[in-house]
Amino acid sequence: MTVTQSKHASGAGAAPDEDAAPAARPGAAMARRFGLQLAGYATLLAIWSMCSLVVFTEYVLPAPWTVAAEMWHLAADGTAFVQFGSSIVKIALGFAIGTAFGVPLGLLMGRVRYQKYFWQQPLLVLGNVPGLAFAVFALILFGIGAIGPIVVVAFVALPYVALNVAQGVEEVDTKLIDMSAVYGIGRAEIVKSVFLPSVMPFLFAALRYGFAMAWKVEALTEVFGGRSGIGFMIRQSYQEFSVAGVLAWTGFFVIFILLIERVFLAGLERRFFAWRGGR
Length: 279
Description:
Distance between the termini: 49 Å
Order of helices and strands: HHHHHHHHHH
Shape: globular
Number of helices: 10
Structural class: mainly alpha
Strand content: under 5%
Radius of gyration: 26 Å
């Protein structure tokens, strides 16, 4: 009897451990993934340091700690925040203009087949124009100033938004719309419960990829014809033969992109699509 009870007790005690094992796996996988990411960054910094100390000179390729000191100096005196603020304003204005034109155009393309045939190829061509060509044409047409980067960002964002929204409209289940109409559901509720859940994932994909591309092209345009912003500061550092300055501003650029992509946009996506249950 004692042995039987001990077996039952041991079995009862082991059951929670078996149940807890699957719950512990996601945490272990996350820790392992985070560790691998840190190892990747550490490897990159190690290769960079070796190239700076062995292959090149400190003047040609500054070491990571030299670039980090330059970044700290730019952040401490407020220069980094001022210049990034200038670039963010131009990107926000240009992206808002591109989205304002791209969303209605995408809705039209998704609903009217002839409009899709008319607009699809020009948008594909516009989306494949090299960023360098945009920067050069902006300098020729608008000169040095803030208008060129804003217009370039709008043209970069437009095809991403329009084509993705059109694809989202085409993916809407027409049977659900017909069934909703049969049951007397209003147009506003159909748009909210059927139309938007189908279109929003495509729109968010367009915003994420379009923003990443627009930010790069905007910085390149500032290199050629800007008076302020991250691209302008990269050009200024290059003209002053400051490789550490070029790498410092490039480092700020990478950090900002990662924060926008991994924190802001990814957080918005998780919040908007919480109804999908993490799928």
